[in-house]
Design goal:
The chain has 490 residues and is of the alpha/beta class. It has 2 domains: 243 residues, 3-Layer(aba) Sandwich (Rossmann fold), CATH 3.40.50; 209 residues, no CATH class. The chain is built from 21 helices and 13 strands. The strands form 5 sheets. Strands 4-7-10-1-11 form a 5-stranded parallel beta sheet. Strands 2-3 form a two-stranded antiparallel sheet. A hairpin with a 3-residue loop joins strand 12 and strand 13.
């Protein structure tokens, strides 16, 4: 059945009796989702037991809400996902700036139009995305931007008196009527502008400057902000906080599995059929972000965005793609060395403390990768017998693997070291696997041993014997003297 195109058709259809507030509409659709046990917010990973239940409670309570969290915690994505709780289509007076319902118009233009045309008033049908208005709060935002103002140009062109309602210029908030109004980074909004939101949050209406008319706007309001102890640019005034129904705190992924799932979902890795990203590479990239969030040299108050592993994985894949193209290889398999090559995508993603500034962002990033490799190595190969590999280097063996070396050359080097290629089973790499995959796995074994300080690595010589600590050498000399003394005694 086609949608009604005029007010008269709407009045005789079943749609006429379904007019509810937008928050009641969201509540009704959310209840329907919960009954069918479907995902409330598809694509939001890692919040099933924390953030999503709190948002669900806020929507069921018909609350305006604020999401508090550090950067890169999917706050904006959650806001935009709220449109999935809106009806597929709702009627509005065609051409109305504030999406007036044809049976309950607010603006003077729609009231005059309906009075003149009656049942012949034309309708438009609004999709959920047309009912979502988002604004990034900045210090230069004015009350006219949010609420509205007098439009003298409209008055001049239409020949209206400035006191006429037809000269109103509606701000973003009235234009979100019958929809969702999202305001990002609320603390950046000047305090006097935040005051302008009091009425809509408490009394449910707004008053545009210069007009003795209060518009009962039907809108669901949602905000985002960084925690106040971090945001130095501004603050949320207390009376406004008091009027926001629910405060929901977001967080970074709590498990490596959640982080890998988010990065896999968001990173651009659709580079063709020849790309294979090993699981351990994905986990190393994600472990870098986890290591950064607990690193003392990095400012924890500013956070480490989930964009860090996303950008790092994309950059690592690009480096592997470039190497495969130069080497003439059909399969693209990122290696640990490709993660090191992605340093430009890491160093801009965190703020350093004073100690970190002394070391330098690039050195901090390298240490994070090394720590991540060591953790993932322990998960996969912690129980593997790699004594022969370590002994090879302790006895003076060296192995230099260049970043751009073709897979065949890397494998030729790795075959010189006993037991490296024989211990790739825990990584899911069988003896008949592709050269690119075997090369990446073999390099990971050596990088893991170096990360755990069982072998050494030099920029000039590659993988070498582990560095001997001076105090350990002293102890060995003392032991040798004791042995000689014991022989003399005997």
């Amino acid at each position: 059945m086609s949608q009604p195109r005029t007010l008269g058709e709407l009045r005789v259809s079943k749609d006429s009796s379904e007019r509810v507030s937008v928050r009641e509409e969201m509540r009704r659709n959310l209840l329907r989702k919960l009954r069918t046990k479907g995902p409330v917010f598809p694509g939001i990973v890692g919040y099933d037991d924390s953030v999503i239940p709190q948002i669900t409670n806020a929507v069921l309570s018909k609350h305006n809400m604020i999401l508090l969290g550090l950067r890169g915690q999917a706050k904006s994505r959650i806001l935009r996902s709220l449109t999935t709780l809106l009806d597929p289509a709702v009627p509005a007076v065609a051409g109305c700036e504030i999406n007036d319902h044809p049976e309950a118009p607010l603006c003077r233009r729609c009231r005059d139009l309906i009075a003149a045309k009656g049942d012949e008033t034309p309708l438009a049908w609004l999709a959920p995305e047309q009912r979502y208005v988002e604004k990034l709060a900045t210090p230069d935002v004015t009350i006219a931007d949010i609420i509205g103002d007098v439009d003298p140009i409209r008055a001049a062109r239409g020949g209206f008196d400035l006191a006429s309602e037809l000269t109103m210029h509606y701000g973003l908030l009235p234009r979100a009527h019958r929809g969702i109004f999202a305001l990002n980074e609320l603390p950046d909004l000047a305090g006097r502008i935040q005051v302008g939101l009091f009425n809509i949050l408490q009394e449910g209406d707004v008053q545009i400057k210069g007009y003795p008319v209060r518009l009962p706007i039907d809108v669901a309001m949602v905000f985002t902000a960084n925690p106040e102890d971090y945001t130095a640019r501004g603050k949320i005034i207390t009376p406004l906080k008091d009027r926001i129904g629910s405060e929901v705190r977001t967080h970074y992924p709590t498990t490596l599995e959640h982080g890998v799932a988010i990065t896999s979902q968001e990173a651009w890795t659709s580079r063709g059929t020849g790309l294979l990203i090993p699981r351990w590479v994905r986990e190393v990239v994600e472990a870098v972000a986890f290591a950064a969030r607990r690193e003392k040299k990095i400012d924890r108050r500013s956070g480490v965005s989930q964009r860090l592993p996303i950008s790092a994985l994309e950059n690592a894949v690009s480096n592997a793609e470039r190497r495969a193209l130069v080497s003439g290889e059909e399969q693209v398999v990122p290696r640990v060395s490709d993660i090191y090559a992605s340093l430009p995508s890491l160093t801009g993603k965190f703020e350093l403390e004073y100690e970190g500034e002394l070391v330098g962002a690039e050195n901090v990033a390298r240490e994070l990768i090394r720590e991540a490799v060591g953790e993932v190595f322990s998960t996969y190969l912690g129980a593997a017998d790699l004594k022969q590999v370590v002994r090879f280097f302790e006895e003076g063996g060296t192995l230099r693997i260049r970043e751009g070396s073709p897979s065949a050359d890397v494998l030729a080097q790795l075959r010189r070291v006993p037991d490296v290629l024989e211990n790739l089973g825990p990584l899911g790499v069988e003896p008949g696997a592709s050269l690119s995959l075997q090369a990446a796995a073999g390099e990971f074994v050596l990088e893991g041993l170096w990360a755990q300080k069982k072998i050494g690595r030099s920029d000039d010589r590659g993988f070498v014997a582990p560095e001997r600590r001076p105090e350990l050498e002293v102890d060995m000399e003392r032991l040798e003297r004791l042995r000689r003394l014991k022989k003399q005694v005997n």
